[in-house]
Specification:
about 220 residues, alpha+beta, seven-stranded antiparallel sheet, two-stranded antiparallel ribbon, globular, CHP02117, TIGR02117 family protein
């Protein structure tokens, strides 16, 4: 019993130290040029929840054309009140089987802690109030913004050139799920995907950010 508690304590301590180190050590190591995340460009938003982060991009005509495939699957990009297009990558079982915390089941939790297939979640939003604790904005230059859009587009799985939508799953009627590339696990999950996307955009994050607070702190420290 005591030995088990001892190993649990050391395991928890190691995890805390890893998260702290992953937050304080920047990636990339050297600062990016001022233009990579320069002022006066396109503003994107990082949306943070208790365990998950999403990226919101402004819903312009260019974006409606570039991501028209999500509209074909049922995301109403032409909605008159839609101002943002929101992307999130995550574990298939947890995303699809846990629309609310009250519906949490052991199976999706087990897969989230081990290995699971991944999905992309796409949603729209109207006006998002800033500032607020769960919303962080960044200004990207044209090149960084284009790299971000490319990274997001490449995260969708394609068959014969077409994205693969997942039928029958929606949280609010305006959102849809799609098959995504890569495997999900607790060490490299939704928040590390978000961090990779932001680095593609020219921002610096921590070396390893598995939870929203560490990602948010690293962005404040290194940018």
């Amino acid at each position: 019993m005591k030995r088990g508690l001892k190993w649990a304590f050391f395991g928890l301590l190691a995890a805390i130290l890893a998260i702290v180190a992953g937050t304080l050590l920047p990636l990339p190591l050297l600062p990016v040029s001022a233009s990579a995340a320069g002022a006066g460009g396109t503003r994107i938003l990082l949306l943070s929840g208790p365990i998950h982060t999403d990226i919101a991009i402004p819903l312009t005509d260019e974006i409606r054309a570039r991501f028209g495939f999500v509209e074909a699957a049922g995301v109403p990009l032409a909605h008159p009140q839609a101002e943002w297009l929101i992307f999130g990558w995550g574990g298939r079982s947890f995303y699809l089987e846990t629309p609310t915390w009250s519906e949490l089941k052991p199976g999706p939790v087990f897969k989230a802690l081990t290995v699971d297939r991944s999905v992309m979640h796409v949603d729209i939003a109207g006006r998002i109030v800033e500032p607020q604790a769960a919303v962080t904005g960044f200004e990207l230059d044209e090149a960084g913004y284009d790299r971000l859009l490319g990274f997001i587009a490449e995260s969708f799985t394609r068959e014969a050139g077409a994205v693969v939508s997942i039928e029958g799953f929606s949280y609010n009627g305006n959102d849809r799920f799609f098959e995504a590339g890569g495997s999900f696990n607790a060490l490299f999950g939704c928040n590390t995907w978000t961090a990779r996307a932001l680095r593609e955009a020219g921002l610096r994050t921590g070396l390893w950010n598995p939870v929203p607070p560490s990602l948010g702190l690293s962005l404040r420290l290194h940018n």
